[in-house]
Amino acid sequence: MVVNIDRLSSKRTTRFKASEIRELLKITQIPEMISFAGGLPNPLAFPVDIIHECIEKTFQKNITHALQYGTTEGLAPLRSALAERMKKKKNIHCELHDIVITSGAQQALSLIALCFLDPGDTYLTTVPAYLGAIQAFHAFEAKCESIPMDDQGIDTDSLRRNLERLRRTGIYPKFIYTVPTFQNPSGITMSQSHRKELLQIASEYDFLIVEDDPYSELIFKGDFIPPIKSYDTKGRVIYVSTFSKILAPGFRLGWLVASREILDKIVQAKQASDLCTNVFAQYIASEYINGGYLDMHVEKIKKLYKRKRDVMLEAIKKYFPPEVTWTIPEGGMFIWVTLPKSIDTRLMFPKAIAKKVAYVVGEVFFPEGGNYNSMRLNFSYPEDKIISEGIRRLGEVIHDELETSYQQNAFPPEGV
User: Which secondary-structure segment (H or E) carries 317?
Assistant: First the structure.
């Protein structure tokens, strides 16, 4: 008898969706394809020599411990180094016992969902939103309420209106998810005043804030804005960050900062998930920070990515039609592009692939759909000359699409 996997699978698996971006990575393997799709760090941003040195030190000092099981909370020297650095760099006052090391920031988001979302629960997110977070929360059968962004990072008036509407129907959201600094996918940064106001609103309506902060180290211009967590005096903010953008994503190392009550739940959930995070990678990361390498290397990454952003912005100005608008991020890895409403970027995508250039359609970053005329472009990964050529190709596709839409509007089908 053939096994009927669908009958045996849990109902939850019917909600699982493949990541559109991960699926896109298969397309980018096509020869001569120029991809702005994946949110990949540039290989030049990997501190290969430093990692080699950290591995050698780990072998010399701690190899037997590094190859052994570790505590669920994570390696104490690494957590201590992170706590000290967050006090110094981000004004987040915490100690090592306030931190749990996770298998990338993605695991942190999944653990938060596991601990706080029951089927049918509601969470909030600013939109456009990071696709990995949408996937993590959706897998736990939660309902999403989208809050629009503005040039201040979040439309707080809309947030209040939505909270009042939900309250009238007896719905009380568990948390709001946000990437306040150089947001993925938009590149927008939430203002300091809106960060404080968001914390105040969370207190008034009694929900948590999940602050995802992978990009704030990658600042090109402007003043540092402290994380929302730095203003948190009541344990209402769960702060998540990662080594993926400042060391290497292959290590799969992230961390989570929260109150003791929250961390107790997170640790128990993690014990059921993977027992502990990659111990060997934690020792390398500990050497990386304690050896004084991190700050020095971040400066190199910032210069590299700023140059690539500038190359992409210059090419966009040169090759995109005047009807197109885009964000100018002051850090991070992404530019958000908005096309005229007559263009659907999903329908345009096969034409871009035919021109050997790829992007991410904006629609996938909206849990409730919509925003068909937008796209996300990544500037951190491609080579400089490839960026210019890829934007030239994409500009041709957009020009052709606009011309087609103009002709259709000028000569509608008979009978219309």
Answer: helix 293-319
